TrEMBL record:
<comment type="subunit">
    <text>Homodimer.</text>
</comment>
<keyword id="KW-0560">Oxidoreductase</keyword>
<protein>
    <recommendedName>
        <fullName>Thioredoxin reductase</fullName>
        <ecNumber>1.8.1.9</ecNumber>
    </recommendedName>
</protein>
<dbReference type="Pfam" id="PF07992">
    <property type="entry name" value="Pyr_redox_2"/>
</dbReference>
<keyword id="KW-0676">Redox-active center</keyword>
<feature type="domain" description="FAD/NAD(P)-binding">
    <location>
        <begin position="5"/>
        <end position="298"/>
    </location>
</feature>
<dbReference type="GO" id="GO:0004791">
    <property type="term" value="F:thioredoxin-disulfide reductase (NADPH) activity"/>
</dbReference>
<dbReference type="InterPro" id="IPR036188">
    <property type="entry name" value="FAD/NAD-bd_sf"/>
</dbReference>
<keyword id="KW-0285">Flavoprotein</keyword>
<dbReference type="InterPro" id="IPR005982">
    <property type="entry name" value="Thioredox_Rdtase"/>
</dbReference>
<dbReference type="InterPro" id="IPR008255">
    <property type="entry name" value="Pyr_nucl-diS_OxRdtase_2_AS"/>
</dbReference>
<keyword id="KW-0274">FAD</keyword>
<comment type="similarity">
    <text>Belongs to the class-II pyridine nucleotide-disulfide oxidoreductase family.</text>
</comment>
<dbReference type="InterPro" id="IPR023753">
    <property type="entry name" value="FAD/NAD-binding_dom"/>
</dbReference>
<keyword id="KW-0521">NADP</keyword>
<keyword id="KW-1015">Disulfide bond</keyword>
<dbReference type="InterPro" id="IPR050097">
    <property type="entry name" value="Ferredoxin-NADP_redctase_2"/>
</dbReference>
Amino acid sequence: MDKIYDVIVLGAGPAGLAAGLYAGRSRLSTLIIEKGKDGGQIAITDEIENYPGQMVEGESGPSLIARMTEQAKKFGAERANDTILSVELEGDVKVLKSAKNEYRAKAVIVATGAFPKPIGCENEAKFIGKGISFCATCDAAFFEDFEVFVVGGGDSAVEEAMYLTKFARKVTIIHRRDELRAAKSIQEKAFANPKLHFLWDTVVQSVDGDELLSKMVVKNVKTGELTTIEADPEDGLFGVFGFIGYNPNSKLFDGILEMENGYIKTDDNMHTNIPGVFAAGDIRVKSLRQVVTAAADGAIAAMQAEKFINE
């Protein structure tokens, strides 16, 4: 491909689409490259309630992303469905190569996201978004007055479990060890919470149900004993939240961009260590990974890319 774009955006989740929208609206020639479906993690969320200004009743992840995609298209962002295999980011022209194509741009915005580590149980994929979640902030309200389970034992797992107690009638932490890995100060708060319970030395073996998650088999890792947990008949379902960590989609940039635990380091304006290369959304080091923060990152990255190009 001979064309040199002003901006190439890698990833079409909320960060990438917001970047494409803002770059296109700034009259920058823009290409968004996505290897799969638009949306990233939000594409598997059935309902969204916490996106500011949301006016659509029963908003879903796919419906929100569909509108973002159309907005980016409206302002001229071009699209390519491709998998980038290598990058050359130094110099005035950045080069991104796939198996069949070579893309060039003056600036690159990395918005490849991160994905939760799976719980690792049988039938897990079938119930993601139908009882299994990886975001308490996103989905806690949907389990108000229901029973929920949290898989994990680190800081995030325990903090998210305490957050869930504001909504669920009962929250049980399932942890494969006999003690939590969370900071002692967090543990003290957790043990003092009357709505929080614990299943020690336990892993989730399998999940099941009709349309929604209503049955789970757990295994004691010390004794091998299997226990079946079923939803209260009046509820018909329960929730399982996985918090055993995330895997950032950053392998492509190993040894090229500065990282921390696999996440790309940026300043407040989304600059990486290489001039003309920006990172936005879940792929970068940050304290909150939500649709609203991803979109904000994308907008900032696009504006900074414009500034870089015009300098």
